[in-house]
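The following block was generated as part of the benchmark described in Methods. Ligand: pyridoxal-5'-phosphate.
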Amino acid sequence: MTTAARVARIKPSPSSAAAQRVRELTAQGHRILDLTVGEPDFDTPDHVKAAAIAAVERGETKYTPVNGTPELRAAIRAKLGHRHGLHYPDEEITVGGGAKQVIFLALMATVDHGDEVVIPAPYWVSYPDMVLANDGTPVIVDCPESDRFKLTPARLEAAITPRTRWLVLNSPGNPTGAAYSAEELRALAGVLLTHPQVHVLTDEIYDEIWYEPESVPTLAAVEPRLRDRVFLTNGVSKTYAMTGWRIGYGAGPRELVGAINKLQSQMSSCPSSISQAAAVAALTGPQDFVATTVATYRGRRDRVAKLLADVPGLSVTAPSGGFYLFVNCGGLLGKRTPAGDVLRTDEEFARYLLESERVAVIHGAAYGTPGYFRVSFATSTAVLDEACEAIARACARLS
Ligand code: PLP
């Protein structure tokens, strides 16, 4: 059967491909030190699981409203009000099968053939392919490490054209953990205010996995004049170790939310009723799980950043949020392995780590920024220590 052109335009997610490769090698009996993981290594909190079981026992096993249960929308409304002082009426909130689905539907609802979407690189691997799948044109803007991997107003201005529909802002970002301060958001808003055709999709999925004293700001609150041009997305996957429950949400202009709901009504009818009950418990229940896991991530972040910074040829900046380190390996490219192969690219470097030391990482080019690799510290300290030692050994053998 021939498939539609949109399928040929996109590739499977490199993180899913890396995870699959790790599974294959493990199935062949290899012990892999897996640093590709894009999800918490903690179990979902017990009170969240209990809420799901209670929902099943109450018979909440049927379709829900297309935009989510009133209870979950109320919990999301409360979170946005309490955290950011943002007030979204019910019809400006939608719930979907993960933030990923909500983002995809937002693009599907708004992007016509040839519309442009500005994506700062390094970017989460899915954004460009989601744009391509919806007939749009991704406009990738390089944001080098010298700009702390962040979009500057000048680079934003240069990327905008009359066809620009969206800017995607992921803060804290995957893969770098970089986050925009209120001042930096204000500076970007200054550019955006002069281009009324541009909407902003903010992806805040890592907002609670955060290591700085002040909580991470959000564009719609920093610049209220942009509030009706911002679509804020988030979810419970990362904060509450609920990646498999598939609940994400979006808040923004009611026409957009209405269009997303219309698409969702034809696509999935609604997210899982049981997962929605669990998400209510996650958002409204005790939050000590978040504090405890963030403290653990912080310890791992500091440890891995130090171990890798000590490796000659690698450099790393500790992230403000998320559970990834984006490691600069540019100093080792062009070097030769003991087998005599020259490592020309970050992809070859990542393959060398996998083949020589069984350490799995994801190469930077997958995120639009060659010369780096991503390490996830959502795994045990024992694995992290062993993997960092192995990376150091592999690097020391290069000449
Ligand atoms: N946005 C970013 C930046 C992510 O890294 C991920 C997951 O890896 C998602 C969105 C998707 O989250 P969800 O599980 O809610 O679909």
